[in-house]
From TrEMBL:
PROSITE patterns: LRR, PROKAR_LIPOPROTEIN. SUPFAM superfamilies: L domain-like (SSF52058). SMART domains: LRR_BAC, LRR_TYP. Keywords: Glycoprotein, Leucine-rich repeat, Repeat, Signal. Pfam families: LRR_8. It comes from Megalops atlanticus. This is LRRCT domain-containing protein. PANTHER family: ANTIGEN BSP, PUTATIVE-RELATED, LRRCT DOMAIN-CONTAINING PROTEIN. One of its GO terms (cellular component) is plasma membrane. InterPro entries: Leu-rich_rpt (IPR001611), Leu-rich_rpt_typical-subtyp (IPR003591), LRR_dom_sf (IPR032675), LRR_TM_domain-containing (IPR050541). It comes from the Eukaryota. The keyword Glycoprotein applies.
Amino acid sequence: MLPLRTLCVRAEWSFVEMNISYLLTLIVLGSCCCQGVLSCPHLCTCYYSISHTQVVCSNSSLSLFPEHGLPGNTTSLSIEFTNISSISAHHLKATPLLQELHLSGNQLRQLPADLLSGLPHLHTLDLTSNQLEHLPPGVFHHAPLRVLVLRDNRLLTADAHWLPPNSSLGWLDLAQNRLSSVPTALLQNLPRLEILHLSQNWLEKLPAGALNSLTRLKRLHLDGNKLRSLDPSSFQQTPALKYLFLQENQLEKLPPGLFQGLSQLDVLSVSGNRLRSLAPGLLSKLPSLGSSAGQGVDLSLNPWQCEKEVAYLWEWLRSHQEISVSLEDVQCAAPEALKGRPVVSLTAGEWEGSS
């Protein structure tokens, strides 16, 4: 056992250490306040932690960028659902440590080419629901973006030079715009892309080889476009694909071998197209289909021709009911005698005798 005097000395030293630590904390906080680090812009809310400073501005009366009072150590800036109509690189110079920039639901009509030039740490940029119609080449070159969301704007074209070669981007969302095409050259700059949203645009075709550089792609949304056909080789270079959404297009047939090599494909939706039959073997050798609970293949809301050409579809549905989504809506459109009947409910004699 230590002598009482030693214990007292240690206790006193611990008390001194505690007070020194407390004083240092006060000094640091005081310094931060003096330098404006703990300041916060008008109409915004700021959240502070040791490694993260978040600024949130979501007041609809905000019409100008809140550049005054922005903490210099801001890592996340959210200016959403305001009336701000412009933003510049000058505005963002006060936040050189910024990692996330959320600008959804504003009135932005354009972006300057150098917008991100002072943001070497920015990895997430969300521009959902603005009024962007055109973006200049190189606009996303200056930051190491991993997530870029441009959903629900008015973009008519996508520029091949928006992003730099060998971009770090892993998630690109261009859904709900007015794109009639997406340059293959743009996709070639995205070797790390895992998620691509192109749904609800005006796409009429997917050029052969357009996806060839996306070898890491796991999720592809092409639903809600005007696609009439797909090249047989469309997905041959996307072996990591797990989720493929093709619903609500104008596809009349799916070429044999379209899904060849997609051994990880888990979810496939082709509902709401103009499919009348499936090529024999189309859904064969896809061992991961339906591996997620409640997921699988959606073939509903197509005008299936329930005659001899329905044989493969009928056989596949009967042996894969557990991974068939909306099975009761996979119905015959013809012949008249079978119209409205779920394909899976037919007997072989019914469709064999309908030709």
